[in-house]
Write a structure and sequence with these properties.
It is globular and about 55 Å long. 14% of the residues are buried. The longest helix has 25 residues. Strand 1 and strand 2 form a beta hairpin. Helix 1 packs across helix 5 and helix 5 crosses helix 6. It is mainly α. It is 63% helix and 7% strand. The two termini are 28 Å apart.
């Protein structure tokens, strides 16, 4: 058992593991790419991959303030990872999509995350990983 997690309750254990995994994923990406992408930026990219949502929809569907979401989108745009354009039916609304570079980065990051999952599977076993996935996907009624 990891001594850092030994005395933590469920919520804190999940939070700690999430932070460890996100930090590892961010480090792996930043060690292999010239484009630095924060966890919040990845989160936004995951919400728009293969879609063209409005910025308002993205803001509603991420647990980030509207102002911060706009800031992250501007950062992604400056890095050449997203395009922002007027919505077809409403010139007031702005839509966002990944650029080809953004899609390539997103897909490469998915591969990095799969590598992390493989390492976890080697350490704790395939059955444990599958059980963990099932438990996390169950409706917890909360």
């Amino acid at each position: 058992m990891d001594p850092k997690l030994e005395h933590l309750d469920l919520l804190d254990s999940l939070s700690e593991r999430h932070n460890q995994l996100r930090s590892l994923a961010e480090k792996l990406w930043n060690d292999t790419s010239d484009i630095t992408i924060s966890n919040s930026e990845w989160y936004i990219m995951s919400r728009i991959y293969k879609k063209q949502p409005t910025i308002a929809d993205v803001s509603k569907n991420v647990d980030i303030s509207r102002q911060a979401t706009h800031k992250f989108i501007k950062n992604l745009q400056a890095k050449g990872l997203v395009n922002v354009m007027n919505a077809e039916n409403n010139k007031k609304l702005k839509c966002i999509e990944l650029t080809p570079l953004g899609e390539e980065c997103y897909e490469n990051n998915e591969d990095l995350k799969a590598t992390i999952e493989q390492k976890i599977t080697k350490k704790i076993g395939e059955e444990q990983v599958e059980l963990l996935k099932r438990v996390l996907k169950i409706d917890w009624g909360i």
